[in-house]
Amino acid sequence: MKTEAELASWAATPWPELGLATPEALEASLGEFDAALAAARPEREAWLGRKRGLVTLINQNWLRLAPKEWKPALGAALNALRLRAEERLAATEAQAQPAATAWEDLTLPGRPALAAAMHPMLAVRDEITDIFLRLGYTVADGPEIETEYYNFEALNIPAGHPARDEHDTLYVGPGLPQHLLRTHTSPVQVRIMQHQPPPVRVIVPGRVYRRDTPDASHSPNFHQIEGLAVDRGLHLGHLKGTLDHFARAFFGPGVATRLRPSYFPFTEPSAELDVSCIFCQGSGCRTCKQSGWIEVLGCGMVDPAVFRFAGYDPAEVSGFAFGMGIERLTMLRYDWNDVQRQYAGDLRDLEQFR
Ligand SMILES: [Zn+2]
């Protein structure tokens, strides 16, 4: 039996040169191709290639050169060879298929798709917001680029007041009135009171800015939630009751709270709210610096001067305000003591909170 190479040179030669003088001799020669096809593991290019395939060569050098009356029988024989070649090739290729896709192991477990989840900081923001929404507060917002008037003056921090220095303000461009990136969410208090008569119960979650060098506990951009309640006859007891409720709702029913006297220019009296340490239950640990208490937020009764700036009559109404850092509460909630990691978006961190 002829090899494929021998068959190729045979098919490339015009039949009269091969001495195949009759149609029967030509048909019998096609039988040799059949035998080779049946024995070989055929390749598509060698058999059915459009330029050098055996079937193509036979067509060019044998069938085309044959006398007209030979052609029907020869054509039928060549067609039959072409069909068998197709079948054999299809069968060989089908057998080869599983080897080519062996990596597709259908018994392997599927790869889980990563579902999106709320960032822990935003989850804490929403949780705090929800606690106050349930108390009848509404959510308000204000501009992040503020004037000195709203950020300082209307909050009882006149030019030259030492509190301005503590705020490390980022100013925006030259000119008057001087614009700045708000250093706290408190300017929204004034804006709300200017546009709405009392009573007011509002919380303001938002982004604030200070000229700080980033480290584990500082960032030039952080988040606060501001709260303001104004009505007739509100007093310190309402403030304490509200914040006590908030602390228990956020940290758990077991926490104790205390108000520690403090100072803010826009509240009088002012206080810091402490909660009993949620890590050591008050017995003293590194987080609470062995004191058993953790500072959570600043608060106080709205200073009458602020009411006057906002157009409210301090003889008619009173109120309280409070402000807390969302990063700090996120830190306490998740014992996540590096504020930079809260911004980093590192999946190794974030996946713990899904
Ligand atoms: Zn502690």
Can you summarize this structure?
With 354 residues, the chain is an alpha+beta fold.
Describe this protein's structure:
It is a single chain. This protein is of the alpha+beta class. The chain folds into 2 domains: about 5-100; about 120-354, Bira Bifunctional Protein, Domain 2 (BirA Bifunctional Protein, domain 2), CATH 3.30.930. Helices cover about 40% and strands about 20% of the residues. It has 14 helices and 10 strands. The strands form 2 sheets. Strands 1-5-6-10-9-8-7 form a 7-stranded mixed sheet, sandwiched between helices. Strand 3 and strand 4 (about 180) form a beta hairpin. It is rod-shaped. The mean pLDDT is about 90. The chain binds zinc ion. Zinc ion binds near residues 277, 284, 285, 287 and 288. Zinc ion binds next to loops.
**How many structural domains in the coordinates?**
2
Bound molecules: zinc ion
Radius of gyration from the alpha-carbon trace, in angstroms: 43 Å
Q: Tell me the overall shape.
A: rod-shaped
CATH homologous superfamily title of the largest domain: Bira Bifunctional Protein, Domain 2
- Can you write the helix and strand succession as a string? HHHHHHEEHHEEHEEHEEEHEHHH
CA distance, first residue to last residue: 71 Å
Query: By helix and strand content, what is the structural category?
Result: alpha+beta
Tally of helical segments: 14
Helix content: 40-55%
Please count the beta strands (DSSP E, at least 2 residues each).
Answer: 10
